[in-house]
Amino acid sequence: MMRSKTLHTVCEEARCPNIYECWANRTATFMILGDICTRACRFCAVNTGLPTELDLQEPERVAEAAEGMNLRHCVVTSVARDDLADGGAQIFAETVAAIRKRLPLCSVEVLIPDFLGERNSLEIVMNSNPDILNHNIETVERMSDRVRAKAKYRRSMELLRRAKEMKPDIPTKSSIMLGVGEEWDEILQAMDDLRAVNCDILTLGQYLQPSPKHLNVEKYYPPEEFALLKEEGLKRGFSHVESAPLVRSSYRAHEQVKSAAQAREERTVSSS
Q1: How far apart are CA 240 and CA 255, in angstroms?
Q2: Which are the contacts of 11, defined by CB distance < 8 A and separation ≥ 6?
Q3: Those residues with Cβ within 8 angstroms of residue 3's Cβ, 6 or more apart along the chain or in another chain
Q4: What are the tens digits of pLDDT across the range 16-65?
Q5: How many domains is the chain built from?
């Protein structure tokens, strides 16, 4: 299906270890806007360079594939397209609309880049009303400039804050990968920073070096420490926390939609 429609998935491009489980659960993460990223983050296996074109028919092909696979939850992400004026925001919005038209019962999550902090680009995506708005901070503040290319920790926090400001009822989500040199207290501080901008869902996983040219792994966290971090996240008020060595941003994403909805209902009941 992916090959016949000339589509890309981050499941394949980023060499995710959970591809079999997620695809078996009818959850897929489409990577739109091509497979060449304008950034060269030191942890990421996606190809980097200068994209040559913009495929305006891609949203419809993604929707056709989602319908053909009868997906229950669809995650749409992209490479960074700093070469585009809107960073690809309009294509994100059109993809959400196309999926909803073909699969009204399929929940749609978008995992977006930072759009270089452009508010208008974020508004375009938020106005498409995704079920979850996901933007990954990737690491703690001290490590951010070393790990991420062009992205800024505080800019990411501002994006998540604005997203919640624009659409308070849409759950927001972020992810931290562990093992690139961060300290325990810095992880907890990053959690606090995310909660300060009302981020609802958190995923934590172990960084694995995709090739010798990428960042070295500084530490392998045992499952027990991931379990402790899950407890810390829940104590801080996240509605859902996935925390284990092989967890990635979209791991069990279909379950996170349910958890976020339940938490929203509980907040509504308690406030009334």
Answers
A1: 9
A2: 18, 19, 22, 23, 28, 29
A3: none
A4: 666 666 667 666 788 899 888 888 777 777 778 888 778 899 999 999 98
A5: 1
